[in-house]
């Protein structure tokens, strides 16, 4: 009797700055886990972006959000995203799209990534309609001006924003 080999674990690589993580990001992670066995949330060290939270703060916040989900791991990386995804054994990079403007940029990235590492797939997930307007930039701006963002971010992020802005 022969036994079929166990299917390889499907790992998704979800890169971004997550400054801060929003309900839209969380929804995407939940949906990624419906398709993949594990997801690696990968925080990019982007020297061109002025981050509100440090890389370490963002990592701690995301780990707190997903503390009860063993299939989620949070890592940081420098350099080319495709190299980091490959190093972590990812089968695909997953990106969320809010609209046509996102698609244009993400399509360029996916095409370049495919040129650099053809075996790494890119998967696009549309943001759910209730989250189309949510962005980290908007959350930062509203929070910095004293607005209520409690419906847009998870509890650990809300506490960090309140500590930052009062």
Q: What is the CATH C level class, in words?
A: Alpha Beta
Low-confidence stretches: none
Helical element count? 6
Shape: globular
Structure summary, number of beta strands: 5
The largest pleated sheet is described as: 5 strands, parallel
Secondary-structure class: alpha/beta
| Percent strand | 15-25%
The overall pLDDT, averaged over residues, is 93
Q: Which strand order spans the largest sheet, edge to edge or round the barrel?
A: 3-2-1-4-5
Write down the secondary-structure element order. EHEHEHEHEHH
Reported by name, the CATH topology is Rossmann fold
The Cα radius of gyration reads 17 Å
Distance between the termini: 66 Å
Key attributes of the depicted protein:
166 residues; alpha/beta; Rossmann fold; 6 helices; 5 strands; globular
Structural description of this entry:
The chain is an alpha/beta fold. It is 41% helix and 19% strand. It has a 5-stranded parallel sheet, sandwiched between helices. α1 links the parallel β1 (11-16) and β2. α2 packs antiparallel against α6. The longest helix has 17 residues, at 100-116. It starts with 10 loop residues before the first strand and ends with a helix.
Tell me the layout of helices and strands.
Elements: E1 11-16, H1 23-35, E2 38-44, H2 55-65, E3 72-77, H3 81-87, E4 92-97, H4 100-116, E5 121-126, H5 136-144, H6 155-165
Parallel strand pairs: 1-2, 1-4, 2-3, 4-5
Helix pairs in contact: 2-6
């Amino acid at each position: 009797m022969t036994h079929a080999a166990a299917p390889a674990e499907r790992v998704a690589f979800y890169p971004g700055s997550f400054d801060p993580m929003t309900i839209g990001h969380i929804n995407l992670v939940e949906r990624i886990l419906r398709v993949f066995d594990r997801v690696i949330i990968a925080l990019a060290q982007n020297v061109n972006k002025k981050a509100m939270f440090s890389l370490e703060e963002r990592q701690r916040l995301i780990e707190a959000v997903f503390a009860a989900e063993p299939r989620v791991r949070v890592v940081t990386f420098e350099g080319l995203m495709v190299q980091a995804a490959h190093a972590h054994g990812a089968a695909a990079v997953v990106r969320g799209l809010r609209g046509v403007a996102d698609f244009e940029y993400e399509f360029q990235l996916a095409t370049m990534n495919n040129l650099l590492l053809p075996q790494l797939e890119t998967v696009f997930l549309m943001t759910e309609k209730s989250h189309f307007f949510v962005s980290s930039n908007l959350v930062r701006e509203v929070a910095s001006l004293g607005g209520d963002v409690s419906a847009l971010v998870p509890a650990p992020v809300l506490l960090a924003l309140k500590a930052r802005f009062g």
